[in-house]
Amino acid sequence: MSTQEAAVRAAAPEDLGRIAEIFSHYVIGGVTTFEEVPPTVAHRRQRFGDLAERRLPCAKRCSR
User: Fold this and answer.
1) What residues contact 59, with CB distance under 8 A and at least 6 apart?
2) How many domains does the chain have?
3) How far apart (Å, rounded) are the C-alpha atoms in residues 52 and 57?
4) 32 in a domain, yes or no?
5) pTM
6) Do the Cβ atoms of 41 and 20 come closer than 8 Å?
7) Is 28 a domain residue?
8) pLDDT per residue as tens digits for the range 22-58
């Protein structure tokens, strides 16, 4: 098994489409979330805005 170095950075609005896509995979086929319907990109943008208003972080994994 190979390992890939990764870093974590603050998510940006342009990341939200891919974040929603990845999250949707786990909503549909996994048991790691309580969501029953995959959120849309618009819904993800709303959550991102809510976190920003509260000055809470939204992070994403990225390759180094």
Assistant:
1) 8, 9, 10, 11
2) 1
3) 7
4) yes
5) 0.76
6) yes
7) yes
8) 999 999 998 888 999 998 999 999 999 999 999 999 9
Token pair, residue 51, equals 């976190």
Other CB atoms closer than 10 Å to residue 16's CB: what's the count? 19
- 64 pLDDT tier (thresholds 50, 70, 90): low
Confidence of residue 61 (pLDDT cuts 50, 70, 90): confident
The pair of three-digit structure tokens given for residue 61, joined into one six-digit string? 């994994």
Confirm whether 44 is domain-assigned: yes
Q: What is the pLDDT of residue 3?
A: 64
Instruction: Please give the structure tokens belonging to residue 38.
Output: 């995959």
Token digits of residue 17: 């489409």
Helix, strand, or coil (residue 3): coil
Range of the domain at 55: 14-63
Residue 9 belongs to some domain of the structure = no
